[in-house]
Specification:
Layout lengths: L2 H9 L6 H12 L5 H14 L3 H13 L25 E5 L11 H11 L3 E6 L9 H7 L8 H10 L2 E5 H4 L7 H7 L4 H5 L10 E5 L5 H11 L4 E7 L12 E7 L2 E7 L19 H12 L5 H17 L5 H13 L2 H21 L1
Parallel strand pairs: 1-2, 1-4, 2-3, 4-5
Antiparallel strand pairs: 5-6, 6-7
Length: 358
């Protein structure tokens, strides 16, 4: 099926099969379509509404263009008495694009708590677009060197437990669509498949989405892509994270099934807080906030990170339920392990820079 046939089918109100979508997306990513064809295709999909099969096919096409990181991420063994990870699970935490709030970089803070608690984390990010502060800017202000090779990223995951995948290094395959997306100015299927194409091949995910109706759909996509555990979330006032402001719509993938429910932070001992208490600012401001959280500063910002890190621990299989994950997250912060992970990441990437120059 060529792109014209695909557009005609979508405009007519019909859904593409997974294989049809994968073929169409491969053509777009290879530059085989014109900008007007690509724009029409993406717009028609958005208007019709993307199906699970369409998102899955598109994600497979994007993943096929990437060189995977060679990391074994299966959880091998958990002791019954004192939990020991024989082979740590990799967890993906991703932003899925520009958000409509000005909260601080919650997910960037969460990676250090998750890593400090025994989970290897592969974090995707990008430079800011549309006036929002991205993870890359904040990490640089925390002292992390982003100008490292792909092999160094893989070593960093192995040795430090954290890998930051800088989008320009990995997403040159998007060169035929980046300008079109900016000119369109609307969310497209690329906002959905970007976080799914993590080259680490993570089996566990905490994934935020921009609409509550997407949580179950994306959980089912993750299942089709081979994920083992996942929390797909849409939080009140915070959108693509578990919220401390009010209920969060959650679709959880576990044991081969998907269950959707509302997560109320009050049921886990947290006080709800207005979104204004989570506001950040510049990259420097957000870096300062993250440092304060990792140093143990209490308040709604820490609570937000603790709650999201708890989901990471459950998804990774370290804890069986959120209350245990919350306790682990608090212990990791108070013991200094989360702060130590930041310091280790800064040191490792600085050494990479040194060896590159010498």
């Amino acid at each position: 099926m060529n792109i014209k046939e695909a557009i005609h089918k979508i405009v007519g109100g019909s859904d593409l099969t997974e294989s049809e979508m994968e073929g169409a997306m491969r053509g777009i990513l290879a530059g085989e379509t014109t900008p007007s064809q690509t724009g029409a295709f993406l717009s028609a999909l958005r208007i019709k509404g993307e199906t699970v099969d369409e998102i899955t096919g598109a994600a497979r096409a994007l993943k096929s263009k990437q060189l995977p990181l060679q990391i074994n991420n299966h959880l091998v063994n958990l002791d019954r008495d004192d939990i020991n990870i024989e082979e740590e699970t990799i967890l993906t935490t991703s932003e899925n694009g520009a958000k409509g709030t000005s909260t601080f970089n919650v997910s960037s803070a969460t990676i250090f708590v998750a890593a400090g608690g025994g989970v290897r984390v592969v974090r995707q990010g990008n430079w800011p677009k549309y006036g929002f502060i991205g993870a890359a800017d904040v990490l640089q202000n925390l002292g992390v060197n982003l100008d490292i090779s792909r092999s160094d990223v893989q070593r960093c995951i192995d040795e430090v437990g954290i890998g930051f995948l800088f989008a320009p290094m990995l997403h040159g395959i998007m060169r035929y669509v980046d300008e079109i997306r900016v000119e369109m100015g609307i969310r497209t299927i690329f906002n959905l498949i970007g976080p799914l194409a993590n080259p680490a091949g993570a089996a566990a995910h905490v994934l935020g989405v921009y609409e509550p109706a997407l949580t179950e759909k994306m959980a089912r996509v993750l299942k089709k892509l081979g994920a083992r555990e996942a929390f797909v979330v849409f939080g009140q006032d915070t959108y693509d994270e578990i919220s401390i402001c009010g209920p969060t719509t959650v679709s959880r993938l576990a044991n081969g099934g998907v269950q959707s429910y509302q997560l109320d932070p009050r049921e886990y001992g947290f006080k709800t807080s207005p979104v204004e208490t989570l506001f950040g600012g510049s990259a420097q401001d957000n870096a300062r906030i993250i440092k304060e959280i990792l140093e143990g500063s209490p308040g709604p910002k820490r609570d937000m990170v603790v709650l999201n890190a708890a989901a990471a621990f459950v998804a990774a299989g370290l804890d069986g339920e959120l209350k245990a994950g919350i306790q682990r997250a608090n212990d990791v912060i108070d013991s200094g392990k989360a702060k130590a992970k930041l310091e280790a990441l800064v040191k490792f990437t600085a050494d990479c820079s040194y060896f590159t120059r010498n």
